[in-house]
Amino acid sequence: MFTGLVEEKGELLQKIKTGDGYQLAIKASKIMEDLDIGSSISVNGCCLTVVKKDRNTFSVDTIEETLKKTNLGMLVPGNKVNLERPLKADARLGGHFVLGHVDTKGEVLQIKELSNSHFFTIGYPEEFKKYLIYVGSVSIDGVSMTVAQLEGNTFSVGVIPFTWQETIFSHKKVGDTVNLEFDVLGKYVERIMSTKAES
User: Which of 52, 56, 49, 55 has the alpha carbon at shortest distance from 10?
Assistant: First the structure.
């Protein structure tokens, strides 16, 4: 489980084809401290498993199902990625509960530069509308964000200067894809309600 508070930006060094997936080798520094083979790591919001590690790089495997739902298959060496280690039991929960189980991809439709922030508008598939509420939480490429506007099957978020600098938001442009994970609490509520309706 993660919080959506990105710890650092890593860099994709290698992308090696493995069957219908890829092995990604990523350069990092801060998160390497207690990262071991077998550890979970969030890469752009996707919970993956470390399969190799040296002093300043680690590798993760992606499979076909992961590549269908996420933007990891579109990455090329040199791209930056958001990295977060799992939540410790004694840590403060500063974002929201993020499982690292990406629901779908969204598309950056607009980026407005404001006086001291940036405003992103993102389009997403219609069937996920039920999981977003005004000022609710959503994970975008692994970053815990608050919904500022909802319209049709688009939503907008405000990006403060700190988040702009410390995550890959500053590398995004219109037309780029982002990984979206909707709030797990909303999914459980929907499941409970639909089960009641069936009985």
Answer: 56
